[in-house]
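Is this the right way to post structure tokens for a design question? Let me know if I should format differently. Anyway, here goes:
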């Protein structure tokens, strides 16, 4: 189901709780909502659709990857960038890493570790900031 995008910073500032198997329907809603906004958005955290769970969706060009409970375990190549967000107005400056390694669970709660770089790494870091209640 396509959900409404949350724009209330008080709700977006809340930290996410761990996601579990009971959150599979939220994962589908996150996927559907990101796909519906594909022309203006390349990543989404669950709090952007009103759910305070540690879950993100990332449009990787050829597929949308949904991650439960993502954690960056390795990072390299700090740089500065200006980012926009579907939930917020305008652009904001921040620092990101060019290369990251992330551990996460898929919606079936199978564990994965993957390396990401470039724009995909930037998207993941932005969405993971949402999970911590950090607004960029």
């Amino acid at each position: 189901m396509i959900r409404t995008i949350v724009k209330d910073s008080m709700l977006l500032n809340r930290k996410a709780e761990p996601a579990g198997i009971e959150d599979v329907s939220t994962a589908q809603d996150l996927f559907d909502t990101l796909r519906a906004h594909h022309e203006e958005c390349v990543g989404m955290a669950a709090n952007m659709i009103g759910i305070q769970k540690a879950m993100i969706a990332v449009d990787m060009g050829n597929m949308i990857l949904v991650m439960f409970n993502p954690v960056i375990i390795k990072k390299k190549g700090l740089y500065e960038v200006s980012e926009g967000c579907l939930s917020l107005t305008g652009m904001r400056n921040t620092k990101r890493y060019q290369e990251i390694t992330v551990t996460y669970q898929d919606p079936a709660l199978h564990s994965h570790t993957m390396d990401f770089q470039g724009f995909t790494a930037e998207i993941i870091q932005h969405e993971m900031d949402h999970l911590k209640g950090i607004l960029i």
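Format looks fine. Someone answered above. Worth noting: DSSP finds three helices and five strands in the chain. The chain has a mean pLDDT of 95.
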